[in-house]
From TrEMBL:
<keyword id="KW-0032">Aminotransferase</keyword>
<dbReference type="InterPro" id="IPR020578">
    <property type="entry name" value="Aminotrans_V_PyrdxlP_BS"/>
</dbReference>
<feature type="modified residue" description="N6-(pyridoxal phosphate)lysine">
    <location>
        <position position="206"/>
    </location>
</feature>
<dbReference type="GO" id="GO:0005777">
    <property type="term" value="C:peroxisome"/>
</dbReference>
<feature type="domain" description="Aminotransferase class V">
    <location>
        <begin position="24"/>
        <end position="371"/>
    </location>
</feature>
<dbReference type="GO" id="GO:0008453">
    <property type="term" value="F:alanine-glyoxylate transaminase activity"/>
</dbReference>
<dbReference type="GO" id="GO:0019265">
    <property type="term" value="P:glycine biosynthetic process, by transamination of glyoxylate"/>
</dbReference>
<comment type="similarity">
    <text>Belongs to the class-V pyridoxal-phosphate-dependent aminotransferase family.</text>
</comment>
<dbReference type="InterPro" id="IPR024169">
    <property type="entry name" value="SP_NH2Trfase/AEP_transaminase"/>
</dbReference>
<keyword id="KW-0808">Transferase</keyword>
<dbReference type="InterPro" id="IPR015421">
    <property type="entry name" value="PyrdxlP-dep_Trfase_major"/>
</dbReference>
<dbReference type="Pfam" id="PF00266">
    <property type="entry name" value="Aminotran_5"/>
</dbReference>
<keyword id="KW-0663">Pyridoxal phosphate</keyword>
<dbReference type="GO" id="GO:0009436">
    <property type="term" value="P:glyoxylate catabolic process"/>
</dbReference>
<dbReference type="InterPro" id="IPR000192">
    <property type="entry name" value="Aminotrans_V_dom"/>
</dbReference>
<dbReference type="InterPro" id="IPR015422">
    <property type="entry name" value="PyrdxlP-dep_Trfase_small"/>
</dbReference>
<dbReference type="GO" id="GO:0004760">
    <property type="term" value="F:L-serine-pyruvate transaminase activity"/>
</dbReference>
Length: 392
């Protein structure tokens, strides 16, 4: 034996219970955790297939779509972006990406890797796109694919109030509209069919309240036709929607093995979706928005300022707070975590060092948790400003 039995694995697993008030993952409701402890089944067992059908119906509901090519990919939300772009883009396709934070930047990077002829329209972090900027981009570049992030979790910005208009433009310019709703779904309205969105995806670990690991995704018939008529195969077998769609019985043909689905995560997502279905998607969105308003008021009372100035551009699920001048935000994070096991996050990408982020998602979007987070934040600010902070 060249490698001894590792001592670390001879101790019990240790996982603390934390309150995840960052940009995701959020805490799973007990019902989701319970579902994941149910027995593991095979990837083509009849019961697994029935649960896949239930999950598909739930995804169609939360996305408000009747698209038959609707399923959950075995990956994080970020993999949803990868799958959307790798399926749609063929080398040389024009791709326009709206960049106002890290997710737009990543989408542009990925689209280049798949051979897209990529252009961007850009806005500074903290701002959303006005319709004119979108129209100028579409007129100038005439892309085959237009990508927009509905919830920029790195900056706390939503594109929501422009979505319908953006869609109108897309129809005029005849391009496929891809919308990232990883951080926004369930907190911001989205009507996939009504707005004629061609590809939409999200992550299981935010408002849906399941652990990270599955990415709900849906393709319109137009997007499906583009994939079906590709001249080159999708570069990544794992993302190939024609194969995945067969496994998920999206084409009315018998299911064929593609990969071994993480069945315990599937149970968790099934229950996360069932909870949203029971509440109703509109009520779920209204709850997130009401919690966000309460958070904004409380932050103001604490003397803090929001990073996103335009009210209608604020993403209810992820609030970005300006780091006050001279404050070491890491001390706020440290205090909240050490004293209360409560996660408050720092910035990401263009907002690193500039903001703190508070997430309100799914099980954590309640008035009680907002109030508790504000209380902890108030104490943490005092701690960070006091000379004693080293003593914690
Ligand atoms: C992840 O989604 C993040 O915004 O940190």
């Amino acid at each position: 034996m060249q490698v001894d039995r590792p001592g670390v694995l001879q101790k019990p697993l240790s996982v603390p219970d934390k309150l995840l008030m960052g940009p995701g993952p959020s805490n799973c409701p007990p019902r989701v955790l319970h579902a994941m402890s149910l027995p593991v089944l095979g990837h083509l067992h009849q019961e697994t297939c029935s649960i896949m059908d239930e999950v598909k119906a739930g995804i169609q509901y939360v996305f408000q779509t009747k698209n038959s090519l609707t399923l959950a990919i075995s990956t994080s939300g970020h993999g949803g972006m990868e799958a959307a772009l790798s399926n749609l883009i063929e080398p040389g396709d024009g791709v326009l990406v709206a960049v106002n934070g890290i997710w737009g930047q990543r989408a542009a990077d990925m689209a280049r890797r798949y051979g897209g002829n990529v252009n961007t329209i850009e806005k500074p972090a903290g701002e959303n796109f006005c319709l004119n900027a979108v129209e100028r981009g579409l007129t100038q570049y005439r892309p085959a694919i237009f990508f927009v992030t509905q919830g920029e979790s790195s900056t706390g910005v939503t594109a929501q109030h422009h979505q319908e208009f953006i869609n109108e433009l897309d129809k005029m310019y005849n391009c496929l509209l891809v919308v990232d709703t990883v951080a926004s779904l369930g907190g911001v309205p989205v009507y996939t069919d009504q707005w004629e969105i061609d590809v939409i995806y999200t992550g299981s670990q935010k408002v849906l309240g399941a652990p990270p690991g599955l990415a709900p995704i849906s393709f319109s018939p137009r997007a499906e036709a583009k994939i079906a008529s590709r001249k080159t195969p999708v570069a990544v077998f794992y993302w190939d929607m024609m194969l995945l769609g067969t496994y998920w019985a999206c084409f009315g043909t018998p299911r064929i093995y593609h990969h071994t689905i993480p069945v315990s995560l599937l149970y968790g997502l099934r229950e996360g979706l069932a909870i949203v279905v029971e509440e109703g998607i509109n009520k779920c969105i209204a709850r997130h928005q009401a919690c966000a308003r309460r958070l904004y008021d409380g932050l103001e009372k604490l003397g803090l300022s929001l990073y996103v100035e335009k009210k209608e551009a604020r993403l209810p699920t992820v609030t970005t707070i300006k780091v006050p001048k001279g404050l070491d935000w890491r001390l706020v994070q440290e205090y909240s975590m050490k004293k209360y096991r409560l996660e408050i996050s720092g910035g990401l990408g263009p907002t690193v060092g500039k903001v703190m982020r508070v997430g309100l998602m799914g099980y954590n979007a309640t008035m009680e948790k907002v109030d508790f987070t504000l209380k902890v934040l108030g104490e943490a600010l005092e701690y960070a400003r006091s000379p004693q902070h080293a003593k914690l």
